[in-house]
Amino acid sequence: MQPLLELKNIVKTFGTHRAVDNIDLTMQAGEKTVIIGPSGSGKSTLLRAINILETIDSGSILFEGNDVGYRQVKGKQVLDKPKNICKLRTQIGMVFQHFNLFPHMTVIENAMEGQVTVLGIPKAEARAVAMSMLEKVGMSSFADRFPASLSGGQKQRAAIARALSMKPKLMLFDEPTSALDPELVGEVFAAIKQLADDGMTMIIVTHNMGFAREVADHVVFMENGSFLAKGAPDDFFSKQCEDPRIQSFIDRI
Ligand code: ADP
Ligand code: MG
Questions:
Q1: CATH topology of domain 5-252
Q2: Ligand 2 centroid to 39 CA: how many Å?
């Protein structure tokens, strides 16, 4: 089957530091990959590279079999067709640790914004889509609230609804619960679990092993820009954890 996403030999350097060092990853539609790994191992950079928030140095990214369009110019990778970026971004939703909601817009306006300005969807239709996504994450009763009046968990669920409103084919979550008080983590994971059960393809960076076990098809351990180990959760947590580097990481979190 045609993979939804294929990463081939992705490299991203900052100065002389290889933040992402030769990463390969293939995701079929509906698959869920959880990435764990120590701080600074390149997890966020990798997610940002997939969404082209970072330009990679080398390697290729294919979405639904189409090359995103990097080409070499004087030894540097540049994007061939900027329009591709825009299209790709609408198909890949991203949820960050720190919500990133527009503070001057209500929850529903946040979820309408991209639909109206990027996709050109009429406001009434955008509102209906936004509302259905807010319902999905249990946030419809907060539609007219401003982000400042919400708890962290509510903000994050609003951010998920906003991403979903663009009808993405792939969702990237970068430590979606790391900024939350512990008692709010469950509601956000429940919303993500619901999405997973609906068949969404997703890559989730998280340190929550319980969630990884429950939702992931694959768990990947990233260190120094590379994937050190990868496996189905049962396999990963039984066998791979014998690797002292992974064991000591898991013991620390
Ligand atoms: P993680 O998400 O696993 O904690 P990051 O992807 O944020 O790791 O960072 C990987 C490495 O790249 C780190 O050493 C970090 O300092 C470096 N890095 C990330 N973003 C930048 C940047 N914009 N400029 C320079 N170095 C960066
Ligand atoms: Mg990070």
A1: Rossmann fold (3.40.50)
A2: 7
